[in-house]
Design brief:
Strand content: 5-15%
Order of helices and strands: HEEHEEEEHEHHHEEHHEEHEHHHHEH
Largest sheet: 6 strands, mixed
Distance between the termini: 34 Å
Number of strands: 13
Length: 425
């Protein structure tokens, strides 16, 4: 089974898994879902134990590895780099990290290139330093984050406004050929995918909402279109007659326009995206004080949107207790100096476990947790949905050989058995 972009949105609406209501669980799909809804193609809420079937020899691009710290990700990164054609960078130190030898991956005749931690994160508050750097973003939906918090267009190999400097995923391109590895959470790609790719994606998933919400659908389409510098479309105005602003070129420009543009766009696009897609998403119903599920207050899981994006994601996870022990010895004693691990006030297990959930839940979840104070249980529900439907390969740290074999079989343009002398840390 070879899946390219058109395979995600083919002419046959019956292709793919249908999505049906499941009312008796703490979450369910809605009655308004259509049999040919694009969001239903790759997400089945009728069976809470189902896992998406992907097939083999997939050609969709980009390929993304979500690196969860203390789960063997350093070695996995190196193996992705070494799986390219014409790899000659050697195996010493971190020579694998930067493409200096012209190595590439053949994606159906198109060259895709490796990028290591070259895209910055987005957070509602800038606190602790992140390896990839970070910029502010308060959008609560993947679509809102794409429009309101775009990656600066000017290439930069360092700093808060990083942008991968390898070719294959240029801002004006109609495709994105890149093998990306980084600590970024699920959904960071919404910030850096080319506008033409995002616009095609929005056209596909918004189709069922065009009759009921035509103005909202059109508004978001124009907003995504404005992200392409070649269109010379205005990204935002501070008011109806206020000064115009275009998509930021640098991190400094992004920061200076944050209050004027990003925050306003986030609110507007989030609201409209929720109108168009919200009722078509599975809903999570929180527990009330009486122990029953509230049918009044619910939150939507955006996992079907992540699952529908035509990218291939992979990750490696670790048994939770083993992972927490590793985090304790690697991070805890440095972060909570002068305290004991048994001190309940440090809440160190909660801090690290929440970060684990956020990485799999998606970048929107940071804002939903910190700004909207959403229940962690509903965010874990979205994280579980992503694990089941949004990752082409999920490996276990104690079975990395199986992960490499599965990745080689599932993705047509990587061969994880190449250059076995190359390893990371």
């Amino acid at each position: 089974l070879n899946l390219s972009y058109k395979d995600f949105y083919g002419a046959d609406p019956a292709a793919g898994t249908l999505w049906h209501p499941h009312r008796d669980a703490p979450h369910n799909a809605t009655d308004s879902i259509l049999p040919n809804d694009p969001l239903a193609r790759y997400y089945d809420a009728s069976n809470p134990n189902a896992i998406r079937k992907w097939g083999c020899n997939l050609t969709a691009s980009p390929l993304i590895f979500v690196h969860i710290g203390k789960a063997g990700g350093g070695s996995v990164r190196a193996r992705f780099a070494a799986s390219a054609l014409n790899y000659t960078r050697g195996s010493r130190g971190k020579s694998w990290a930067k493409v200096t030898d012209g190595s590439y991956y053949d994606v159906m005749g198109n060259r895709s290139y490796f990028c290591n931690s070259g895209h910055s994160n987005r957070r509602p508050n800038i606190r602790a330093r992140t390896f990839e750097g970070q910029l502010l973003c308060e959008a609560t939906t993947p679509i809102g984050r794409a429009v309101a918090c775009p990656e600066p267009t000017q290439a930069s190999a360092s700093g808060s406004g990083k942008r991968c400097t390898v070719p294959g995923c240029d801002v004006g391109s109609d495709s994105c050929h890149q093998v990306y590895v980084g600590h970024n959470a699920v959904g960071s790609e919404f910030h850096w995918l080319p506008p033409k790719v995002l616009r095609r994606f929005w056209d596909g998933i918004s189709m069922p909402g065009t009759k009921r919400h035509p103005d909202d659908v059109a508004y978001i389409d124009r907003a995504i279109h404005s992200l392409d510098p070649a269109t010379k479309q205005i990204w935002c105005r501070s008011s109806h007659r206020g000064p115009a602003a275009w998509r930021p070129h640098t991190a400094e420009e992004y920061t200076s326009l944050y209050n004027q543009c990003s925050k306003a766009l986030a609110f507007s696009v989030d609201e409209k995206a929720t109108e168009v897609l919200g009722k078509r998403l599975p809903q999570f119903y929180p527990l009330t004080t009486t122990g029953t599920r509230s049918r009044v207050h619910s939150t939507a899981s955006w996992a079907p949107v992540y699952a529908s994006l035509p990218v291939l994601r992979t990750t490696v996870v670790r048994e939770p207790f083993s992972w927490l022990v590793s985090k304790y010895f690697w991070h805890y004693r440095r972060m909570f100096q002068g305290t004991k691990c048994s001190d309940p006030d440090t809440r160190w297990t909660e801090v690290f476990a929440t970060e684990y959930i956020m990485k799999l839940c998606g970048e929107d979840c940071y804002t939903r947790l910190e700004v909207m104070e959403e229940d962690i249980e509903s965010l874990a529900f979205q994280a579980e949905g992503n694990l089941r439907y949004s990752f082409a390969v999920v490996g276990l740290v104690n079975e990395t050989d199986t992960f490499y074999d599965m990745t080689s079989a599932r993705v047509s343009y990587v061969n994880m058995s190449r250059n076995l002398d190359v390893s990371g840390q």
